[in-house]
Design a protein that fits this description.
By secondary structure, the chain is an alpha/beta fold. It is built from nine helices and eleven strands. It has a domain of about 200 residues: TIM Barrel.
Length: about 290
């Protein structure tokens, strides 16, 4: 299904900020770090769509530029492994977490944000919104964002990716009213199907060779992706690709009624712990020899 954004406000991608962030010379311990070549700020007014698989209006990447995105997390082991790989390369990515995992593993989500990555939304239960009734679809979107805010303890970006990359007119209309940018993909790693880390890397690199640039879709709940990422980052650097970091002009404001429904559905997360990491609550005082 296609959707035209021809009538959207001109200048949706604002402030293309050239940057020498985290060059190889400044990334401690890795002389061949990918780093961040450019940071862009996105004006999400009117719900612009990005990713040529579905939305073709805004071609903001230059040849050789890539954007790293991760869906479906967070999960402690795999997300943290991915965060380490990114940190080793001083690289930044955009994460689209699922709401119920965001409140299930809030400390992991906060680690994503504290590392300087951008966080958007990906519904609460990861359902196919193209098959959902209109009211249910809106609730999934909004509860997802409310859960991400509750888990992170901070406002996040008005960036959204549809589960299964399947939208409906209703979801597009709602996101437009809420001024939430929509992300598809240019380079699908198919890491949810491919079990071999080597094949994931090969798939991404071959598609990049064909297209020359693109938004790369991966999943931080996949063990193969966590294993593949260090090699992929090395390959991107070796082949001369440059990393672009996405940021938003404005933070997302969640809807109060959905904030309340998320609070009411989450058990065992008292509000007084909302900003306390596990390390401040539980610490090791003795270790067996």
């Amino acid at each position: 299904m296609r959707y035209s954004y021809a009538a959207a406000v001109v200048g949706i991608v604002a402030g293309l900020l050239t940057a020498s962030h985290a060059s190889a010379a400044t990334c401690a311990g890795n002389a061949k770090a990918l780093g961040v070549a450019r940071t862009v700020e996105i004006d999400t007014t009117g719900a612009p769509g990005f990713g040529f698989e579905h939305y073709k209006a805004y071609d903001f990447l230059e040849k050789g530029e890539v954007v790293l995105t991760f869906d479906d997390g967070p999960l402690p082991t795999h997300t943290r492994t991915i965060l380490k790989a990114l940190a080793d390369h001083c690289a930044k990515a955009t994460f689209f977490p699922v709401g119920k995992l965001s409140v299930g593993y809030p400390e992991v989500l906060r680690e994503v944000i504290s590392a300087g990555h951008t966080v958007g939304g990906h519904t609460y239960n990861h359902i196919d919104l193209a098959k959902a009734k209109d009211e249910q679809a809106v609730e999934e979107i909004e509860r997802g964002f409310s859960a991400v805010k509750m888990g992170s303890g901070l406002p996040t970006a008005p960036f959204f990716r549809h589960p299964f990359l399947r939208h409906s007119k209703n979801t597009l209309d709602h996101l437009a009213k809420r001024n939430i940018a929509i992300f598809s993909t240019d380079i699908d790693s198919f890491d949810f199907k491919i079990q071999s880390p080597e094949r994931i890397v090969d798939t991404v690199m071959k598609k990049l060779e064909k297209h020359g640039k693109g938004i790369i879709l991966m999943h931080d709940i996949q063990p193969s992706t966590a294993k593949a990422l260090p090699v992929l980052l090395d390959s991107l650097k070796e082949k001369g690709y440059r990393l672009v970091h996405l940021t938003a002009k404005d933070a997302l404001t969640t809807v109060a009624k959905y904030d309340e429904t998320v609070k009411g559905s989450v058990q065992g997360m008292p509000e007084q712990l909302a900003n306390r990491p596990t390390s401040s609550v539980v610490k090791t005082v003795k270790t067996a020899p």
